[in-house]
Design goal:
Length: 442
């Protein structure tokens, strides 16, 4: 049954290995749920779940600073709206193609379900590369992107946000264009600026949420984060704020990376310097050496996982930890891995961690704090109110605890105690499946 659906997905979506990978993991995890619930089989819940409700692909023409015309491709996948409006980020990166957006949109369905908030799953983006572009080029691109996207989204329909390559600056330019065309000031995007409808904590949320989830894992493991050595890959939004929370709690973050290479600073990373480089100056991480000449820089990203650490936080991109890297981490005594990026560990790496009893927090549970806080931004926009930092942070913490509890209990219920991969998939899926069943064949 499950195998048949997976085979169909591979056949009908050729050349999209990331999407196949995401589907396979979820479907294999939920197979026992279908045995318990024959009504899901009869209603063809899985067959419907793997087919996006709507896929939008569009041309994004824009002009560079030299006056030359450029063309990129834009995507929005409205994957599943069983439990709420489509919700999920936009990724701007040259590697973006339909298979990446589908994998991210598919994951988003279950992640959003786990948050306890009413949000369906969606994702979008473009193969546009913001790197090396001027502010005005980024603005013109964002405006052109939104001139088309605005036809499909809305505060009760589909609410995009950021992801790789899309932060506060891009959300600002896109929001401005949406408002101009639609003539409405609504919560159609999240991750907005604090002066115009954004939520406190949204910037920090994915990283902070990741560590709140990690703390729950460590409680059961009987370990403390205080004094632990941490490696956090990436040096973007997720990695920076995960590292910040780790440092606040007394851990030592010794390594971070960007797509060119990684830095190792045995004294602990100076986050102020990383923020200045990546958030303000938009420079390469290599330049960290100018701030801390005693740190080390190495070209290439993979070797970051050969650094000895207690806790590994893959916070950059998909499939960044393969089996070889997992083996190296285990050999060096890692005791916990929590995924801030989406699908950063290959299936073989995950199996390796589980086999070797490494406490493993899967992405769709561990990194759900970002979208959860986006959900809280939507709530505040609907109320036309802004909550304090402490209020949002406390809510985020409660949500991450709930996600951990749901994942842990589902794993136990289905006879796989401690396997949060299976637990998160089952818990996220169950709510969506029940809702799809209740809403009939749509
Ligand atoms: P950012 O664009 O802020 O940062 C991405 C970081 O990862 C950068 O350091 C970047 O390096 C590095 N990176 C990107 N692509 C690659 C690659 N192909 N190989 C190696 N390194 C790479 O993005 P975020 O921090 O927001 O996103 C990081 C991950 O977290 C993604 O998987 C995203 O989907 C996920 N995520 C993000 C959430 C959010 O709220 N932002 C929520 C949940 C998950 P460089 O600077 O060289 O490009
Ligand atoms: O992968 C993700 O969950 C995000 N990029 C955040 C999505 C959101 O809508 O805040």
């Amino acid at each position: 049954m499950v195998k048949g659906v997976i085979d169909q997905v591979v056949k009908r979506n050729p050349g999209e290995p990331e999407f196949h990978q995401a589907v396979k993991e979820v479907l294999e995890s939920v197979a026992p749920v279908l045995e318990k619930h024959p009504e899901y089989k009869e209603a063809k819940i899985l067959d419907r779940l793997v087919e996006p409700e709507r896929q939008i692909i569009f041309r994004v023409p824009w002009q560079d600073d030299k006056g030359e015309f450029r063309v990129n491709r834009g995507f929005r996948i409205e994957f599943n709206s069983a439990i709420g409006p489509y919700k999920g980020g936009l990724r701007f990166h040259p590697s973006v193609y339909i298979g990446i957006i589908k994998f991210l949109g598919f994951e988003q369905i279950f992640k959003n379900s786990l948050t306890t908030l009413p949000m369906g799953g969606g994702k979008g983006g473009s193969d546009f590369d913001p790197k090396g572009k001027s502010d005005s080029e980024v603005m013109r691109f964002c405006q052109s992107f939104m001139a088309e996207l605005c036809k499909y989204i809305g505060p009760d329909t589909d609410v995009p946000a950021g992801d790789i390559g899309v932060g506060g600056r891009e959300i600002g330019y896109m929001y401005g264009m949406y408002k101009k065309i639609r003539n409405e000031f609504t919560g159609v995007l999240t991750g907005k600026g604090l002066d115009w409808g954004g939520s406190l904590v949204r910037t920090e949320a994915t990283g902070y949420g990741l560590i709140y989830f990690l703390l729950e894992m460590l409680k059961d493991l009987g370990k403390s984060i205080k004094g632990a050595t941490v490696v956090s890959s990436g040096s973007g939004n997720v990695s920076i704020y995960a590292a910040q929370k780790c440092q606040e709690l007394g851990a030592k973050v010794v390594a971070m990376s960007d797509s060119n290479g990684y830095i190792y600073d045995k004294d602990g990373i100076d986050l102020k310097a990383v923020k200045q480089l990546k958030e303000v100056e938009r420079k390469r991480l290599k330049e960290y050496l100018k701030h801390k000449p005693n740190a080390k820089y190495e070209d290439g990203c993979n070797n970051i996982w050969s650094i000895k650490c207690d806790i590994a936080l893959p916070n950059a991109t998909q499939n960044e930890i393969d089996e070889k890297s997992a083996a190296k981490l285990v050999e060096n005594g890692v005791w916990a891995v929590a995924e801030g990026a989406n699908m950063p560990s290959t299936p073989e790496a995950i199996q390796f961690f589980l086999k070797n009893k490494v406490c493993f927090g899967p992405a769709k549970a561990a990194n759900a704090g970002g979208v959860a806080t986006s959900g809280l931004e939507m709530t505040q926009n609907s109320q036309r109110l802004s909550w304090t930092f402490e209020e949002v942070d406390a809510y985020l913490n409660r949500i991450m605890k709930s996600i951990y509890k749901q994942s842990k209990e589902a794993a136990e219920e289905y006879g796989q105690p401690g396997n949060l991969v299976v637990g998160a998939n089952i818990a996220g899926f169950s709510k969506v499946a029940r809702s799809m069943l209740a809403q009939g064949l749509v």
